[in-house]
Predict the 3D structure of the following.
Amino acid sequence: MSAESDPGWKGDAHPRQEGPVDLRLAGPALAAWATAALVLDVPLAWSLGVAGVCLVGGVALLRVGSGRCRAPVAAVLLCVAASAVSAGLHGADVRRGPVPEVARRFGTVTAEVELTADPWLSRPRVRGDRAAPVGVLARGEVRRVGEGAGALTRSPVLLVVDADVPAPGVRGAAPDARTAWLRLLPSTRLRLTGRLAPPATAGDRTAAVLRVRNWPPPEIATGPTAPQRLAGRLRAGLREATEELPSDARALLPGLVVGDTSRITPELDDAFKATDLAHTLAVSGSNLTILLALLIGPPGMAGLAERRGIAPLLGLSLRTTALLAGALTVAFVIVCRPDPSVLRAAACGAVALLALATGRRRSLVPALATAVLLLVLYDPWLARSYGFVLSVLATGALLLLAPRWSEALLRRGVPARLAEGLAAAGAAQAACAPVVAVLSARVSLVAVPCNLLVELAVAPATVLGFAALGAAPVSMPLAKALAWCASWPAGWIATVARTGAAQPGAGVDWPGSWPGALLLAAVTVALVLLGRRLIRHPWWCGALALLLLLVVVRPAPLTRAVTGWPPPNWRYAMCDVGQGDATVLSAGPGTAVVVDAGPDPAPVDRCLRELGITRIPLLVLTHFHADHVGGLSGVLRGRSVAAIETTAFAEPPDQAESVRREAATHHIPLTTAAAGEERRVGPLTWRVLWPQPDALAPPDGPNDASITLLVHTAGLRLLLLGDLEPPAQQQLLHTPEASDLSRVDVLKVAHHGSAYQDPALLHLAAPRVALISCGTGNPYGHPAPSTITALRSTGATVLRTDRDGALALTGSGGPHGGMKVMRD
């Protein structure tokens, strides 16, 4: 009786039918991987010595050895030898030549640099009260050093281009120059002058950091190669085809298709990282697998007479189909750029698909091991790449764990499609979570459901996006129509990422170290073993799923009952946003007036979510320093904001322009505060005290132009000073409103409690409670001991966010008000 006629036969591809996993190539691949990671920093002579010893040992073992372990051990030794040679040569290439030597002396050079990847914008960062200018970063190779003919070399560098550096062929500086820098294509050679410095992280592929100078201006020595020009036109066509799409789809679609993340905002990028969906924005083997599966049909049927896909519909033979698939792979690499991550994705995707096409899952692990071995020998620097680790772990989990988990779910009555999706998302998350925790010091609790929800949308978005990419050079209207169709699944992916990241319990903090990763791996194994038992008890599974849902969503009544935060009937809250300001005045259930936004979007967004704020009638930005306005997008995230009020002193200009741009994007009107202005929202009333239009002197910088508010709520009087410094504080004492400043209930201390305070104002205010917003370990010494002493001398209780966390005021004013300050 044949195997196929056996009623118990499940088929060659079934995970329980084909016997033990073939791990013969796993040992050599892992040995080569480990060797490359260790040898890259070793002097070339040492690496060649290690290679020689292993080569001799492997050959000798093959010639004179005996026993079952002879071939496996010899294979490991020979792979170690090959990896040591490759890693030694690659490491020596980075260390040799004039560039590393000049970098150690922080010298200035004139060089010819060839770009090896697309330039990208640096992420905005807040340093104190300033936002670091957004510059351009690019990977390149120094090919020639010195004037004229110069000295030939080949050293990889990271180019840092500040905003004032003109782009080659463009007159003037930002923003036109910055846009022109971003349009430069890989393989373009530039002649420029800059200062070399050692790389920030030792032991990586970069030999030096080259900060480009604006004089003499950079020039284009030679243009990009023909393939790169073609790829550039295709990518530009895709960007043009998506130009009129909604903002999320416009930003996301080029990233899904070709890894072009130039339009991804920091806010959207954070949402993808918080939900462990960042892999969808990187070119991965799944992109290529989707395209090849579209060509040849479902895996396992590629060689059958009843095969599916586009190829059999066109009447193409298997040989022609294979050649077409190879051409598609080459085109994929060219369009998505042949950098190491794309080559890695192409190799993993092609090898895995080739193994799947045979219909035998048992061949998948050897195929993956072969891909790892070849890639590490070709590019040893991948051995230290977290992206490479995650790719291998995810692929291995999908090949080894997912089929068995899916089968277990099927036996429990879970529908086939849902079982496959749950198994794939769960296996990938279980394998990758420890490494992700090292990178982010956080574990996502929404990763599995979010990946499951976007799974069905990734394929249509990718296919339609590539169709738009190919149609753009031929017919832009057709490309725009295809892009519009792709915008629906792309928009769904962005919505899932934003919704998941917006949940109060989307993630938990975790030690960002390798011991922390090992601990998470142990916890994951324990949960998997527990899950194998719990899956037999549906009621327990349902109860635990409900508990996890409550932990993630954290309904306000339940959170308040468990943690006591936020306290009921809170009147005023000071968010813990680090070195910056963000305070909240309650104006009713879910409604608040927000004063300042802090330096970063995430902390203020998290604070407002915990407070349950969904509607903001007015957002007051006291002045335009980055530590007060940098988190504006976090305040606007998922909330209705009716208006933004700012000071008339628009300095620093770049931050003021950023606020105007953000407000215009969200169609929020901007108004200017005026002294004497009085307003009411629900139980809140307030009056603007500063800045005065007839002040004795113009403001001495943005701090002295801060909007100052006197707020009344539930009988409480709160004085919010922004960042006023002594000159403006003294002038405030001479205004008609000065008499209203005596004996306030709460003082929001100016400028994070710095030493620059006017003692007369502190003694006049004589607050019952003084609140200071400052960051832990900040380099400015805030709050100053002298300020704390002065406040305590007035009888005030001093609380500060760096030690006490977020703070909330409850109760009411008056002799029987019972005002309290609660800590998070």
